[in-house]
Amino acid sequence: MRQRVHVTLSAFTAVVALTAASPIGVQRLAAQTNWREVRSLRMGRFQTRIDVSTAHTIRIYAQLDTSRLMGDELAPDSVKAWQENLFNDLDKPTRTRYVLGNSVLVQPFRADSSSVGYLVTVADTGGASRQIVTDKDGMEEFLDMLAKGVVAAKTLSDDELKRSGPIVQKPISLAKSLNYVYPRNAKLANQSGSALVQFVVDTTGRAKPESIICVDATYKDFADAAMAAVKLMEFHPAELEGHKVEQLVQYPIDFKLNAVLPVKPFEIPTRRPTRRPPPSF
């Protein structure tokens, strides 16, 4: 089972910084306006963040050692479309190049027989650029950062975007504990297991039924029990500057006799994972 993504991580896994790269395309100067930081990531020597402006546009800042890059202003709808397209392709890329304006170029490559690596080029408004190499988990973190920027640009008001300081965020949390039903066959066999369920938590704090899928499970009985439990769960929804927003999460449930549910879910960007039917007893 693949490693799960946690929103509080501040670094990519397996990130390699490279030398300066050629510009992605023709550059242009960005207009000066008020900007607020939405989310940042640190990846060893390389760090990046997503900012949102009072014009409801987005830009990407990146730094490698002493080199600082500030990207073009981007429309949130174009960033959303690019982010979702690449995120849906992470398991099996359909392109050799994913270009986001003059700011980002992602080039997937076959790292080995079973995994894909990603060469990421980030450019600034003056034509300078830098590159890093990362893996799937690193790309998920980067794309989640972009997704947070899109939500901020489309949700916050003009007055809220004029405030100083980073955007105030509140992560999803479980509102109340839940006693789920242990699979009968597994209980009779004294069998333990686990399941990883993915779903969207709406602004009321409930999982959208049509979004609930099981990403991975030890046995099918655990998958069925985990998805049934998610339908009954109540969450405190995610917030941006006090605005309740929808959030896709992955929720791990360990099935052990006399066990309780885990403490918190893992937020991830919107993507449909490859469904692998778990084995049955």
The SSE order reads EEEEEHEEEEHHEEHEEHEEEEE
Oligomer: single chain
Average residue-wise pLDDT: 83
Major sheet summary line = 5 strands, antiparallel
The secondary-structure class comes to alpha+beta
In the sheet with the most strands, the strands line up as 1-9-8-7-6
Question: Judging from the principal axes of the Cα atoms, what is the shape?
Answer: globular
How many extended strands?
18
Bin the helical content.
10-25%
- Rg, nearest Å: 20 Å
* Content of β-strand: 25-35%
Outline the low-pLDDT stretches: 1-14
Number of helices: 5
Report the span from N to C terminus: 19 Å
Q: Indicate how many domains the architecture comprises.
A: 2
What can you tell me about this protein's structure?
The structure is a single chain. With 281 residues, the protein is of the alpha+beta class. The protein folds into 2 domains: 16-161, no CATH class; 169-267, TonB (TolA/TonB C-terminal domain, 2-Layer Sandwich). 19% of the residues lie in helices and 33% in strands. The protein contains 5 helices and 18 strands. The protein has helices spanning 76-88, 136-155, 158-161, 184-188, 220-230, and strands at residues 16-20, 35-43, 46-53, 58-64, 67-70, 98-100, 104-110, 116-123, 129-134, 169-170, 173-174, 193-201, 213-217, 235-236, 238-240, 243-245, 247-255, 266-267. Strands 1-9-8-7-6 form a 5-stranded antiparallel sheet. Strands 2-3-4-5 form a 4-stranded antiparallel sheet, with helices on one face. The chain is globular and about 65 Å long. The two termini are 19 Å apart.
